[in-house]
TrEMBL record, chain A:
Cellular component GO terms, alphabetical: plasma membrane
Signal peptide: none
Record key words, sorted: Cell membrane, Membrane, Transmembrane, Transmembrane helix, Transport
Protein name: Paired small multidrug resistance pump
Family under the similarity heading: Belongs to the drug/metabolite transporter (DMT) superfamily. Small multidrug resistance (SMR) (TC 2.A.7.1) family.
Bilayer topology term: Multi-pass membrane protein
UniProtKB/TrEMBL annotation, chain B:
UniProt KW Transmembrane keyword: yes
GO function terms (MF aspect): transmembrane transporter activity
Protein's recorded name: Multidrug efflux SMR transporter
UniProt keyword annotations, A-Z: Cell membrane, Membrane, Transmembrane, Transmembrane helix, Transport
InterPro entries: EmrE-like (IPR037185), Small_drug/metabolite_transptr (IPR000390), Small_multidrug_res (IPR045324)
Primary location group: membrane
KW Chloroplast (keyword) present: no
Membrane topology field: Multi-pass membrane protein
Gene Ontology cellular-component annotations: plasma membrane
Naturally occurring in which organism (per UniProt): Aneurinibacillus thermoaerophilus
Length: 104, 117
């Protein structure tokens, strides 16, 4: 269950980051709600995940999912580049996260 | 050292502080401290990344956060040291930092994305 919480925490972090981007473009209450709601849920699920997963592993994977998720949203929704170096780094993060899952 | 870089370092320390709080906070005041640490780390990060190259700021910040939590859990909270775990976290960190640095280089309009953390 801890890993499901961790994936949820990372996904809501992506929601929060999307909120930041929206607030930077246009400051209205919807954007602020996405930002605050996303990060609150993200921190909530991260604290749940850390009940069973060690702090260092949980934090690293949370950061990883957040960064990779934002990059994937950028690539598939906002048409950012899919150049090979980005794909390489994304696969490194995913492989490391899967590895950490197996040894934990 | 540039004053703004000192802000990045302090942001990194507060990042480690809230991660510890999220796992170990046990009463009202430790939770209040955790929430303040989250706020301070975000605020300092956003401030410093508006004046410094965002990709580098993010790399330093994530590096401190990740290394700091791993070191603290092993030194202070009695997690066992595992080579495989440390190497995997290092691989993950290289991936995260690489992705941020490459993204900043190739896209001019996603600065805000990197400020998300």
């Amino acid at each position: 269950m801890g890993w499901i919480y961790l994936i949820l925490a990372g996904s809501f972090e992506v929601v929060g980051v999307t909120g930041i981007n929206k607030v930077n473009k246009q400051k209205n209450w919807q954007s602020i709600a996405i930002l605050v709601g996303g990060f609150c849920l993200s921190f909530f699920f991260l604290s749940q995940a850390m009940k069973t997963i060690s702090m260092g592993t949980a934090y690293a994977v949370w950061t990883g999912i957040g960064t990779v998720g934002s990059a994937l949203v950028g690539m598939f929704i906002y048409g950012e580049s899919k150049e090979w170096r980005r794909v390489l780094f994304i696969s490194m993060v995913l492989m490391a996260a899967i590895g950490l899952k197996f040894i934990s | 050292m540039n004053r703004n870089w000192i802000l990045v370092l302090i942001a990194g320390f507060f990042e480690v502080a809230w991660v510890i709080g999220l796992k170990h906070a046990y009463n009202f005041w430790t939770w209040v401290g955790t929430i303040i640490a989250i706020y301070v780390s975000f605020d300092l990060l956003i401030r410093s990344s508006s004046r410094l190259p965002v990709g580098t700021v993010y790399a330093v910040f994530t590096g401190i956060g990740t290394a700091g939590t791993v070191i603290m859990e092993m030194l202070v909270f009695g997690e066992p040291f595992q080579w495989v775990k440390v190497l995997l976290i290092l691989l993950l960190l290289i991936g995260v930092i690489g992705l941020k640095v490459v993204t900043k280089e190739s896209e001019d309009n996603v600065g805000a994305e990197a400020e998300g953390k």
